[in-house]
Amino acid sequence: MKVLRAQCAGACYGVQRALDAAFKANEGHDQVFTWGALIHNPQVVEELEREGIEVARSMDQLPEGSTVIVRSHGVPPSVMRALEGAGASVVDATCPYVARAQKAAARLAREGCRVIIVGEAGHPEVEGIAAFAAEAGGKADVVGSPGDVPAGLYDPIGVVVQTTQRRENLDAVLEQLKAQGLEPRVMDTICAATAERQASAAQVAAEADAMVVIGGRNSSNTTRLAEICAAAAPRTYHVESAAELDPAWFADCATVGVTAGASTPESQIHAVEQALQEL
């Protein structure tokens, strides 16, 4: 059985930057925490905990003088102020692409736009972007699909996008806004690495008999990769580790494609590839 890896797969710059920041902070400090899960990869979070880097979700968990790493998804401005006010040493590991989306939302709000955030309600990145718009005095609506676009909107409308969204979804939401007679001002904040991974995954899925998508089930970008692959290769399997692979999935397969989400380190991809080659 031939194993094909997507050309663009695995940990992106923002994720690697956050991981490097965490390990570096841990070298010189005894009490290191991440504010929420640093990235959406349970195995990596467990590895960090084994290294002594704990996950904090409330200020009460932070001893005075501790080091706190802000996760790659970013946080609302109020959380950043609270961390600094609690006397913590803050390491901001917000992905630069996420920070760009935060700034874009704030700018649109300051300029009087009602902000539409194309993304997943409840996702920490989206919550942070919405908070930046609110901090700038604006109102923000989270829209997951064209059907979520509120009625009664009026210009000026500004649009920002969760960095891991599919471009097709952004385009569909924009069409819906225009169908309501609106002229949205669009800040295209989709991460370039996300778009590259999605295109690369689709290409491999079109050639493979089955696809394996590696990454946390709580990872939105990995979930989207699985959706994209399933459209071309119905036998698509989303796994978090090589231990989940079932040989029965690949019966009669000549070629299996492999891709991985932006929060998936090389070690996890290699383990899955090796397990597939041994089937």
Kindly describe this structure.
With 279 residues, the protein is an alpha/beta fold. The chain has three domains: 2-10 and 192-277, Cobalt-precorrin-4 Transmethylase, domain 1, CATH 3.40.1010; 13-95, Rossmann fold, CATH 3.40.50.11270; 97-186, Cobalt-precorrin-4 Transmethylase, domain 1 (3-Layer(aba) Sandwich). It is 41% helix and 18% strand. It has a four-stranded parallel sheet, with helices on both faces. Helix 3 (77-85) links the parallel strand 4 and strand 5. The longest helix is centred in the first third of the chain and has 16 residues, at 13-28. The relative contact order is 0.16. The model has no long low-confidence stretch (mean pLDDT 95).
In short:
The active site is at residue 125. With 279 residues, this protein is of the alpha/beta class.
Number of helical segments with 4 or more residues:
9
The shape, in one word, is flat
First CA to last CA: what distance? Answer: 8 Å
Instruction: Indicate the CATH class of the largest domain.
Output: Alpha Beta
Main sheet attributes: strand count, strand direction, barrel closure: 4 strands, parallel
Q: What's the number of structural domains?
A: 3
- Helix-strand category: alpha/beta
Low-confidence runs of at least 5 consecutive residues = none
Mean pLDDT: 95
Strand content: 15-25%
> What is the CATH superfamily label of the largest domain?
4-hydroxy-3-methylbut-2-enyl diphosphate reductase, catalytic domain
Organism: Parvibacter caecicola
Binding site for dimethylallyl diphosphate: 40, 73, 123, 219-221, 263
GO biological process, one term: dimethylallyl diphosphate biosynthetic process
Function: Catalyzes the conversion of 1-hydroxy-2-methyl-2-(E)-butenyl 4-diphosphate (HMBPP) into a mixture of isopentenyl diphosphate (IPP) and dimethylallyl diphosphate (DMAPP). Acts in the terminal step of the DOXP/MEP pathway for isoprenoid precursor biosynthesis.
